[in-house]
Amino acid sequence: MAIEIKGKTAIVTGAGSGIGAAIARSLAAAGAQVVAADIRGDSVGALAAEVRGITAHSCDVTQAGDVDALVAGVMERHGHLDVMVNNVGQSIAGWLHDATNEEWQRVLAVTLSSTFYGVRAALRAMLPKRTGSIINISSGAGFGGSPGLATYGAAKAGVNNLTQSAAVENARSGVRINAIAPGAIETPAILAWAQSQPGGLPAYAATLLPGRFGRPDEIAAAVLFLASDEASFVNGAILPVDGAASARMPAIDVPTTRAR
Ligand SMILES: NC(=O)c1ccc[n+]([C@@H]2O[C@H](COP(=O)([O-])OP(=O)(O)OC[C@H]3O[C@@H](n4cnc5c(N)ncnc54)[C@H](O)[C@@H]3O)[C@@H](O)[C@H]2O)c1
Fold first, then answer.
1. What is the CATH number of the domain that holds 214?
2. Is residue 124, in this structure, part of any structural domain at all?
3. What is the pLDDT of residue 249?
4. How far apart are the C-alpha atoms of 23 and 21, rounded to whole Å?
5. Mean pLDDT score, 157-180
6. Dist. CA 251 → ligand 1 center (Å)
7. 152: closest CA among 213, 218, 98, 107?
8. Ligand 1 pocket at CB < 6 A
């Protein structure tokens, strides 16, 4: 049975590219009215022109006022916000000892503060209605240490705890707050980076535990489930969607693990 979310209104931040665009398409295809928000107004404008059920909104989610206005606009237009997907995040790769104050502040602002603003604004809109689903896009990098991703991993670990804290605080409210932790997903920036590695894209993909990148639509499918009433008892979860990557303990890996 296909999941339907007809009549629900949804906001997806960072919907102009990659995972966010796939989420917006998937929610709209399942019947939701979707507001696709992005700092790149042109990219969400193109998405809205192409996909029925999607409208575009230009904003900077590092600004609390922008996020509050985004949610207020939906409440004014539709009277209810049912699904809030906080998808914007940014990594700046590099060793921790080389990271600048500016890089640290930037990664925290784009990845963690943006999620805080989104969760808070959505809670304020949803709690009085006693219904709603907030979904934060985290990362496997939030589960443990990844060389070169310390600032990003710390910010995503913050996203995970924010998700759990919000769920625990509001466990009896009717509003659910969950996160998805994607593994390596084939979005434009990741593909370009993998292409630049020795051996190119296929060689890099072969090093991934599942032997391939995930697709944005595989993340969108999990978001659709969490957005729907089918997930009515799923709250405070950090759901890995990563082909088992985060389940692995590399220290005791043996060659046969990779062969299958
Ligand atoms: N791609 C992966 O492999 C991967 C893996 C794990 C987690 N993630 C997470 O998934 C999310 C989406 O990643 P993606 O790879 O699809 O990214 P992407 O770079 O393809 O898209 C990000 C979108 O966010 C928009 N954006 C950036 N800053 C913004 C701001 N301040 N305000 C509003 N919009 C802004 C960009 O314009 C862009 O359209 C991020 O949180 C990322 O950390 C991605």
1. 3.40.50.720
2. yes
3. 82
4. 5
5. 99
6. 30
7. 107
8. 13-14, 16-20, 38-40, 43, 60-62, 87-89, 110, 137, 139, 182, 184-185, 187-190
Hey, which of 23, 35, 39 would you mutate to test ligand 1's pocket, going by the most ligand atoms within 8 Å of its Cβ?
39
In one-letter notation, the amino acid at residue 55 is: T
| Residue type for position 186 | E
User: Could you give the CA distance from residue 192 to residue 166 in angstroms, rounded to a whole number?
Assistant: 35
Q: Among this protein's residues, is 152 annotated catalytic?
A: yes
Residue 4 DSSP label: -
Across the chain, what does the average pLDDT equal?
96
Atom 7, ligand 1: which residue's CA is nearest?
139
Range of the domain at 64: 9-243
Please name the residues in contact with 118: beta carbons below 8 A apart, sequence gap of 6 or more. 11, 13, 61, 67, 84, 86, 134, 136
Domain assignment present for residue 238? The answer is: yes
Q: Does residue 248 lie in a domain region?
A: no
| Range 60-70 average pLDDT | 99
